[in-house]
Amino acid sequence: MLPRLQLLASYAYLRDEGGRPAREFRENILALAPYVDVMVDSGAYTVATTKRRAALGLPARRGPPITLSAYIAFCRAIHGRVWQYLALDVIGDRPATSENLRQMVAAGLYPMPVVTTTTDLAEVPAMVAINPWLCVAGGPVMTHRWCCRRYHEVYEASGRQAQIHALGFVRWPDIARLPLRSGDSSSWQKGKQYGALTIFDDWRGTRGCTLPQLRRWASTGDRRADPFLGCAAEMGVGDAALLAPAAWRTTTGVASVLSVYGTLRMGEAMAGRGVGSFIVNTNNANLGHLLMAVAGYGRGRDAYPASVAMWQELQALHGQPERYRARAVDLVRARTAWQSPVLVEPMEEAIAR
């Protein structure tokens, strides 16, 4: 059985401005919230990334700017229904980030303060007084060495009281050695997005390859192919099926499903060390992809067929939101240790302490 699932969803994808798909995604996440740890990100990084892509002439998700008043209203609506929600930071603007946190607290909220890459460490004790759980930014954009040093600096600046979530950081095994309580990553989507296969083991951590690489290794007897072929065999997929182009870049493709299995396996390893692993979700398709993997993971050679069957079942329930949510909840309750969270201290208890 899998440990309690942990999901991170961005306000940028949950707000009403996203139309019916966003509202349905929000309701699906909230329906699962009693059985998984849900962390809501403010969307600041998503918005900044969108602006950068648009400036470079690259495809970018369009949407109105995120306002503090709208975000406060949203957080009030979900307060008590999700595990945590982040303060609204403004990338590159330290005073604005501090002011947003002040206003959210004045509104009666207890957000997770965000220690940005420019935050003065002298501000950390006041942040911990608001909420002992802190988010430390930098994972997706700063060097690994910088991030490791930053986590230690923030922890020490808090008087070793901070419960640190590393935004965009789950590098193994370092995440289990650093003063961190949790991390998050969206890399589990690479199989479907980029045609890459990612696997995980306790010794080597995460490893990935593309189809051309794997076919070349397999055809020449290169031992680098062995872990990937072995992982597929454990899940009931033969070499020929894995090496076929049809197995890559589709939601139910072998490489895509095995990549999510790799993320779930890493979550198990992290949970065994008391560290949370939040899986980034951006829409209903992502959520369905994750649930599909949860249905099959750990079933040995029946794993892949069970996952494909679950995907087909969930697809048949689209347009029936209540039945879809009920099936998703039943699946999570049946396949995860939802009553035994990795992060055992709920937000309200941590704040009271």
What does this structure look like?
The chain is α/β, with parallel strands linked by helices. The protein has a domain of 121 residues. Helix content is 49%, strand content 14%. The chain has 17 helices and twelve strands. It has an eight-stranded parallel sheet with strand order 4-3-2-11-8-7-6-5. A two-stranded parallel sheet has the order 1-12. Strand 7, helix 8 and strand 8 form a beta-alpha-beta unit. The longest helix is centred in the last third of the chain and has 18 residues.
Q: Total number of helical segments? A: 17
Q: Which residues form runs of ≥5 with pLDDT under 50?
A: none
Major β-sheet profile? 8 strands, parallel
The span between the termini is 32 Å
The SSE string, one letter per element, is EEHHEHHEHEHEHEHEHEEHHHHEHHHEH
SS strand fraction: 5-15%
Strand tally is 12
Furnish the topology, listing elements before pairings.
Blueprint lengths: L1 E2 L2 E5 H4 L4 H14 L4 E5 L2 H12 L12 H11 L5 E2 L8 H13 L7 E2 L8 H7 L2 E4 L7 H14 L5 E4 L7 H4 L4 E4 L4 H5 L1 E6 L3 E6 H10 L5 H9 L4 H5 L10 H18 L4 E6 L2 H13 L6 H14 L4 H15 E2 L9 H6 L1
Parallel strand pairs: 1-12, 2-3, 2-11, 3-4, 5-6, 6-7, 7-8, 8-11
Antiparallel strand pairs: 9-10
Brief sketch in words of this structure:
The chain is α/β, with parallel strands linked by helices and 353 residues long. The chain is 49% helix and 14% strand.
